Amino acid sequence: MSSPKPLQLFCLAAMLSSLLLLAISCGGSKANVRKDEANTSAQPMVVDVTTAPAIVRDLPRFFEATGSLIGDEQTDVAPSVAGKVVAIGVELGSYVKRGQMIVRLDDVDAKLRVQQAQAQVEQAKAALRQAEEKVGIRSGQSFDPNKVPEVANARVALDLAEKNLRRSEKLIESGDISRSMYDQQKAQRDQLKEQYESALSLVRQNYAAVMTARANVANAESQLGLAQRNLSYVLVYSPIDGFVAERTADLGEYVSPSSKVATIVRINPLRVRIDIPEQAIPAVNVGQSVSVTTSAWPDRNFSGRIARISPNVTPTSRTLTVEAEIENGSGALKPGQFATVRILEARAQPAVLVPARAVRTESGVSRVFVIKNSHAEERVVQLGQTEGDLVEIKGGVAADEPVATSNLEQLSNGMAVRQ
């Protein structure tokens, strides 16, 4: 019986030969692929681009600041007297005119106080008329005590006694009358003088009562005026033209002078306060034009002007507070909105502009590609203002230099391009 070993060795040798031929054929294929890739990479890549020249244009210069919009005037409305709310004339967002009713309070007690004060005025006037009659004068007349009948009669009698006494003095010297007759006339004169002075004193007392009665009338009329004023206070009016920003009073609620019933705000114009850096102070003046943008209206600019400038620079921040008034006739802007304010400078300055599509910004770094001799030249630039579809380039690009405006993502420095 023959051994199987030679047969096994033959099979093994055949397998090794097959593997060797396969390895040689694969190695040849990979070499061909690498050769083809080398040939391909040796050919330079060319990118098709469109270009536009950088242009120079005078741009109005401005600097930006941010702030919050506030109403031109805002007031919290509170009643002048306490009372229960019985009527409401406005709602949230209502437009009100100055003098328009906001709420009305219960007026029953106020009307009763007016009636009571009116009765007191009439009573005081009656007492005054009675006091004036005692001294014989009427309202508005000047007082002369000697014109009062009692005083006038006593004065006439006293004057007559004085004349008789003087005549008796001459007669007693000549001896025509006795001393007793003279003494009798003198006593009569003294008695009439006391009567006159007593009547005069009484009239002056009565006139003092008149003055007191007039004061009582004036006081009663003041109380009546106060009661009438308090009656008018049951109607709470708007002190300004504007919109109802808040209405806190409800029907049946008891309010007091410390209770706010509504907030009225005037929104045209609006105000915005901004802080200007110290180096920009010379460029800011009252009446200077400003424009405002908000996140709610990113495509709209609202015009205004600088209305007020603080006289002091803030010591901590070295900034100057400026207040601008913004036109808001359409009511699009609302108090409380965050706004970006641009303050226009007096003179325009030249600037280099390129199309916005010519700028590629990655990780906060902006680049443009200037095309020279059919190659792209990368330049890192700083952007400035935007003007429509153009953007300002602050250095790095000269006027009339062509910049790539398409396929920017395929470009790199030194790459060949075809326009």
How would you sum up this structure, described in words?
This protein has 419 residues and is of the alpha+beta class. The protein has three domains: 166 residues, Elongation Factor Tu (Ef-tu), domain 3; 48 residues, OB fold (Dihydrolipoamide Acetyltransferase, E2P), CATH 2.40.50.100; 124 residues. 35% of the residues lie in helices and 35% in strands. It has four helices and 21 strands. Helix 2 packs antiparallel against helix 4 and helix 3 runs antiparallel to helix 4. The longest helix has 54 residues. It is elongated, with a radius of gyration of 53 Å. The two termini are 87 Å apart.
The CATH architecture designation of the largest domain is: Beta Barrel
What name does CATH use for the topology of the largest domain?
Elongation Factor Tu (Ef-tu), domain 3
Shape: elongated
The amount of beta strand, in percent, is 35-45%
User: How many domains, as an integer?
Assistant: 3
SSE sequence, one letter per element: HEEEEEEHHHEEEEEEEEEEEEEEE
DSSP helical segment count = 4
- Whole-Å distance between the termini? 87 Å
Unreliably modeled segments: 1-7, 23-42
How many individual β-strands?
Answer: 21
CATH superfamily name of the largest domain?
Answer: Efflux pump adaptor protein, beta barrel domain
Percent in helix: 25-40%
Under the CATH scheme, which class of the largest domain? Mainly Beta
Structural class, please? alpha+beta
